[in-house]
Specification:
Elements lengths: L10 H5 L2 H7 L4 E5 L4 E3 L7 E5 L3 E7 L5 E7 L7 H4 L8 E6 L1 E7 H8 L4 H26 L2 H13 L6 E3 L2 H8 L3 H13 L3 E4 L2 E4 L2 H7 L2 H14 L13 E2 L2 E2 L7 H20 L16
Antiparallel strand pairs: 1-7, 2-6, 3-7, 4-5, 4-6, 8-10, 9-10, 11-12
């Protein structure tokens, strides 16, 4: 009986040219990722990078008082551990499994070796990193300017984009930690969405009943993030190994040339967007979104 798990379930791995994928394949280790497992701690040394397939991983910034706030999510569209090929061996964020499932991990040394070949993997990771930093920047803006209901809608939609079902196993406490708000705020926000007929919430489970309704209720931040991911990563061949390699702009990925030093400089330039977003003066959050119950 064939295994239900396949590295090609991760879009980045499926986008690699066959020669690169075959070079990595023997070193890709299937791992179980249970809900709440901490993969990285802030300041911890990165020994592996993770390619989720059926799981979602949350990147959290942890405050001195122990509080936390989510800055990005990583699912089957990406990779966990971009700090590794940005030139550092540690990460300033905590990585926690938000939705249980599976993934593949690769030793950090092997990832760096492949990245420094300055080939298809490097260019693919740079495009993904740009999309991820857009998500981080937009999350910082959203958490400051938009209501908890809008933030919850954004978070639900981003999660659904990375899952094969319309259900999430999630407690109020975990959602509060992700959004950086009080549990009472999550209770009120989830209650409004439920009364509007958009979700069904109870016993640590959220079932999305009306995705189009969520998309109408969410702020513009979700569309900004989704459009950027689509713009940068829409050329994925996925599991079809016969298709052309991932493309950068109008040129095939294999034809793009730059050195690892140039790639690192470009990635660090992208990172400055996040720093600028977090340091900018922010206005108070807007009032709650108006949710009309569907007829």
């Amino acid at each position: 009986m064939p295994s239900p798990h396949n590295p090609l379930q991760n879009y980045l791995l499926s986008a690699l040219p066959e020669t690169v994928f075959k070079r990595l394949l023997p070193n890709l280790e299937l791992v179980t990722l249970p809900l709440g497992e901490v993969l990285y701690e802030s300041g911890g040394r990165l020994r592996h990078v993770y390619f989720p397939t059926t799981s979602i991983i949350s990147l959290l910034y942890v405050f001195e008082d122990g509080g936390s706030a989510e800055i990005a999510v990583v699912g089957n569209e990406g990779v966990l551990g971009i700090s590794l090929f940005m030139g550092g061996e540690t990460t300033p964020s905590r990585a926690v499994v938000q939705s249980a499932g599976y993934g593949y991990r690769l030793k950090s040394s092997l990832m760096k070796d492949e990245f420094h070949r300055a080939g298809p993997l490097m260019h693919l990771l740079l495009r993904y990193t740009q999309a991820l930093i857009t998500q981080m920047s937009q999350t910082a803006v959203c958490n400051r300017h938009h209501s908890i209901e809008q933030q919850l809608c954004r978070w639900l939609l981003l999660s659904l984009d990375r899952l094969s079902s319309d259900s999430l196993t999630m407690t109020q406490e975990l959602i509060a930690n992700m959004l950086g708000v009080r549990r009472e705020g999550v209770t009120q926000a989830a209650g409004k969405l439920q009364r509007a007929g958009l979700i069904n919430y109870g016993r640590g489970r959220i079932d999305v009943l009306d995705r189009p309704g969520l998309e109408k209720a969410v702020c513009e931040c979700y569309a900004v993030v989704k459009l950027e991911f689509d713009r940068l990563l829409t050329d994925f061949p996925h599991s079809d190994r016969e298709q052309a390699p991932f493309r950068v702009g109008d040129a095939p990925l294999d034809s793009v040339r730059s050195t690892p030093a140039e790639a690192m400089a470009a990635t660090q330039s992208m990172t400055s967007q996040v720093l600028q977003a977090s340091q900018a003066q922010q206005a108070p959050p807007t009032s709650d979104v108006s949710l009309a119950k569907p007829k």
